[in-house]
């Protein structure tokens, strides 16, 4: 068999170019992957810290340490929370995100919100409660005076002073009610509140013509968000089946986020 010596240089040139082309595309692929990793921060994720109940300045400092950004996008009004502090965040604390991610913050408004006092005299306790909440206020203490109709509103107060309908007052102010108490209908019952969150327990207390007293939290409750999820593990007076109580009786509550304390009850 004859070998065409004249074609050897040509064959070597073709093979060399093929090898160079393969090397070029391999290098291009490696560079592209490296660039994509740099752009997308491949495998560089962090756990979003909890910035709720912090000032915006402190939240920014925490975000900087985690190499993420923050932006205030909205505000709400929560009277029980420090003004200007972070109410909520998105993504939530504990979420996995890439570095450089923007965390959007909703803060508690620094401006006091004002609302108008409704006219509650002549309403039943249930109707008055509905009006109070619809007006952006809260139900305060219930006091009773002998009258023909039980739970008929006789007067309305804020901080011990009569407030006329239409008067502007601070939102979420507790409205105290003076209610009628008929001699024929002057007893109620203490509800079972163990395992309920504070809003649900409060509703049950008022529905039974009782007063909410001291509210305390155990060591498991450390943040504002914890107070929202905490549940009652102790109530005073305690619940007793069928045991009557005087209307206006005060119930004190202790709350926790520990399920073991609730199970022990």
Describe this structure in words.
The protein has helices at 8-40, 56-65, 125-134, 198-207, 224-229, 259-263, and strands at residues 45-47, 69-76, 86-90, 96-98, 102-108, 114-116, 138-146, 153-158, 161-162, 168-170, 174-181, 187-189, 211-217, 231-236, 244-246, 250-256. It has 3 domains: 45-108, Trypsin Inhibitor V, Chain A; 112-185, Trypsin Inhibitor V, Chain A, CATH 3.30.10; 187-265, Trypsin Inhibitor V, Chain A (2-Layer Sandwich), CATH 3.30.10.20. 28% of the residues lie in helices and 31% in strands. The model has no long low-confidence stretch (mean pLDDT 88). The chain has 265 residues and is an alpha+beta fold. A 4-stranded mixed sheet has the order 7-11-8-9. It is elongated and about 120 Å long. The termini are far apart.
Just give the CATH class of the largest domain. Alpha Beta
List the helices and strands in order: HEHEEEEEHEEEEEEHEHEEEH
Summing up helix and strand content along with how strands pair, one would put the structural category as: alpha+beta
Number of helices: 6
Number of domains in the coordinates?
3
Strand content: 25-35%
Termini gap = 99 Å
The CATH architecture category of the largest domain equals: 2-Layer Sandwich
Shape: elongated
User: What about the largest sheet?
Assistant: 4 strands, mixed
What is the mean predicted local confidence, pLDDT? 88
CATH fold category name of the largest domain: Trypsin Inhibitor V, Chain A
**Fraction of residues in H or I helices:** 25-40%
What's this model, at a glance?
This protein has 265 residues and is α+β, with helices and mostly antiparallel strands. Helix content is 28%, strand content 31%. It is elongated.
């Amino acid at each position: 068999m004859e070998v065409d010596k004249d074609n050897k240089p040509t064959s070597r040139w073709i093979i060399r170019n093929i090898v160079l082309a393969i090397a070029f595309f391999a290098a291009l692929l490696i560079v592209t992957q490296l660039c994509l990793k740099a752009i997308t921060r491949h495998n560089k994720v962090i756990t979003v810290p909890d910035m709720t109940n912090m000032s915006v300045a402190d939240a920014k400092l925490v975000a900087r340490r985690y190499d993420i950004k923050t932006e205030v996008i909205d505000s709400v009004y929560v009277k029980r929370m420090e003004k200007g502090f972070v109410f909520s965040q998105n993504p939530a604390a504990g979420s996995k995100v890439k570095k450089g991610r923007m965390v959007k913050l909703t803060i508690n408004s620094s401006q006091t919100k004002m609302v108008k006092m409704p006219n509650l005299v002549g309403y039943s306790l249930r109707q008055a409660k509905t009006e109070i909440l619809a007006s952006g206020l809260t139900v305060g203490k219930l006091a009773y005076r002998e009258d023909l109709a039980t739970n008929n509103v006789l007067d309305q107060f804020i901080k011990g002073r009569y407030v006329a309908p239409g008067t502007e007052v601070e939102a979420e102010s507790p409205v105290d009610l003076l209610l009628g108490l008929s001699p024929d209908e002057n007893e109620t019952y203490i509800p079972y509140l163990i395992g309920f969150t504070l809003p649900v327990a409060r509703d049950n207390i008022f529905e039974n013509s009782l007063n909410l007293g001291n509210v305390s939290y155990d060591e498991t409750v450390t943040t504002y968000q914890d107070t929202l999820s905490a549940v009652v593990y102790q109530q005073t007076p305690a619940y007793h089946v069928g045991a009557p109580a005087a209307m206006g009786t005060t119930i004190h509550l202790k709350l926790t986020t520990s399920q073991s304390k609730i199970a022990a009850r």
